[in-house]
Amino acid sequence: MATRTNTPPKPHLGFGTRIRKSPFFESTLAWGCKEYTTYNHMYFPVYYNTPEEDFWSLVNDVTLWDVSVERQVEIKGPDATKFTQLLTPRNLSNCAVDQCKYVLNTNYEGGILSDPILLRLAEDHWWYSISDSDLLLWAMGVAGKDKYDIELREPDVSPLQVQGPKSRALMNDLFGSWINDLKYYWCKQTDLNGIPVVISRTGWSGEIGYEVYLRDGKRGAELYEKIMAAGKQYKIAPTGPSQIRRVEAGIFSYFQDMRVTDNPFEIGMDRLIDLDMEADFVGKEALKKIKKEGIKRKLVGIEILGDPISKVVPPQYTPGYFVPDHWPVFDDKKEIGYVTSKCFSPRLKKNIGYAFIPIEYAKNDTQFEIRSPYANLKAKVVPLPFFDPKKRIPIK
Question: What is the structure's pLDDT at 194?
């Protein structure tokens, strides 16, 4: 019979048929994944050793992530470009074939639905590589019936990420010297010993990195093991995406840091909005109104002062990796906002994160109090990103 304790053990995630498994699932088990979560209705491997060990593998060597949860919304056909533009406020008129773009998808109120990487594979062939969102269902609703001459579906495509300073050497060994000429945010369709893939120079790490989009789900284990074998000499480690490194880099996570209730101006993504382009997009009029009236709140970088927050988080949560709740922010007795992401950076030796707060509090060095379920903590607003402020590392 179950009994209640003050410090409950960390719960386990049971595997079943209701949640989809990736083509690399068995490989992630065999290589010792210790924790999975769910993302886009799939099992998502998140760490193998400890979050700090996985972090150091990423920043010192090279890591392999199963990110098949980044499902593709494929748009093909004569109206593909027009419809792809309709789903994003970023101007795509200068997006060439084989180029990638980081974009936002917005609804009719200007709220953020997803923040995918967009790949253009041909003149009339696009992929939205989505965050944790049901963007395909939204796109189907926007498309309606017979309004656009397009094919709209989720293809058999499952990405891996190869990230870290030694990733270029590894990818060179696997695919050849053309990898050296692949520019940041560009892609190429190719194969690895007959395994069809798309390679893009993108990633969620703030490090040099690549994504390998498998185009045949039956060959998942084969591809995974080939990369691991080739990476042995570079001290490759299978990991999940590093929350520590992505926060250091000022990278946001959909639904954790932004949701459909938030708009692009509130998260500082004005550069992804073109309100003057001729092409229409969903949310255009709403975003014009929001820009004219101004925003009342903003997502900012924060430093949480004091000891590592892992010391105040209960042991059932992975220290320094993920705390499952948004923590409220107070100015004296008034609740003014909430912390979205937070972690302890072993490199910076400080607690870092993001908070949504009123615009009048968003100036650097403004201090406030965080009232977590475990302790009250002091914090201050600081510039983003926390590390590599000019974001030069991934484009070297």
Answer: 98
What is the CATH number for 193?
Answer: 3.30.1360.120
Among the listed residues 324, 338, 343, 160, the one whose alpha carbon sits nearest the alpha carbon of residue 242: 343
**15 falls within a domain:** no
Segment 107-122 shows an average pLDDT of 98
Are both 227 and 263 inside the same structural domain? no
How many CB atoms sit inside 10 A of residue 316's CB? 10
Rounded Cα distance between 26 and 22, Å, is 8
Specify the 3-state DSSP secondary structure of 254: strand
Structural domains counted in the chain: 2
Q: Which of 204, 188, 224 is nearest to 66 (CA)?
A: 224
Is 354 in contact with 257 (CB distance < 8 Å)?
Answer: yes
User: SS3 letters for 343-376?
Assistant: EEECCCCEEEEEEEEEHHHCCCCCEEEEECCCCE
Residue 338 in any domain: the answer is yes
Residue pair 377/369 in contact (Cβ under 8 Å)? The answer is yes
Q: Rounded distance, CA 143 to CA 148, Å?
A: 7
SS3 247: helix
pLDDT of res. 373: 84
Q: What is the pLDDT of residue 319?
A: 46
Domain carrying residue 337: 250-382
Q: What is the pLDDT of residue 14?
A: 82
- For 181, other C-beta atoms within 10 Å of its C-beta total 8
Tens digits of residue pLDDT in 308-358? 987 777 665 554 445 557 999 999 989 999 999 999 999 999 999 999 999
At residue 69, the pLDDT reads 98
pLDDT of residue 320: 42
Same domain, 194 and 285: no
Domain end position, chosen among 246, 269, 290 = 246
Helices (H), the chain: 25-30, 51-60, 80-86, 135-143, 167-175, 220-231, 243-248, 284-293
CA distance between the termini of the chain: 58
Other residues' Cβ atoms within 10 Å of the Cβ of residue 332: 7
pLDDT in tens, 241-284: 999 999 999 999 999 999 999 999 999 999 999 999 999 999 99
pTM over 0.90: yes
Among residues 195, 221, 246, the one where a domain terminates is: 246
Residue 364 and residue 255 share a domain: yes
